[in-house]
Amino acid sequence: MEPNQKLIDFGGHVGVLYYALTKYLTFPEPFEWEIYDVPAVIREARKFAADNGNSAPLSFSEDLTQSTPCDWVLFSGSLQYVEDSLSSIISQLRSRPTYILINMLPVHPDKSYVTLQNISTAICPYRIHSASELLEEIEKLDGEVIDQWKNADKACQIPYHPDHSLDYYYGMLVRLTPTQDTTNQAPTATSTTPRP
Description:
Strand content: 25-35%
Number of domains: 1
InterPro entries: Put_MTase_LIC12133, SAM-dependent_MTases_sf
CATH architecture: 3-Layer(aba) Sandwich
Organism: Marinobacter lipolyticus SM19
Protein name: Methyltransferase, TIGR04325 family
Distance between the termini: 26 Å
Strand order of the largest sheet: 3-2-1-4-5-10-9
Structural class: alpha/beta
């Protein structure tokens, strides 16, 4: 991360990850961290920030199409809760980011499916991506996987369906090629296959 950059935290709730990371990281100055979420959550995020002395880098949005250009888009435990594909989410932005950072994503080696998650206060649809589906989305964006990892402390156990259960979640850093005529260029994501 460099000075004058901006990150959009997609589904960032009240800024849980931002507040957690500021205990360990020093962000460059100036740097903007924008939380994007549904309107009800953004209202609470603004209240929480005001009650806790909102620092200058933090901003809020409930409409991706109105967000100012960004350098990073972060999906940390959020992509599995939305119906839109990764490429369609990125296409809603006013300009193309340089990096996509995905963390805590359930990825199955072979299958794509939707299950249900019980979060005690509600039962939510929960989308599991296949490794090939995720790679196809990155190819659509003309992206390159430059790092990937396992979130070994997170598992997804689906009762009565062990072949659909996951022992760990998945993360990756994707770099997008700058906007240009890419009609004669092969996608670069195929050189790195996700290893869920």
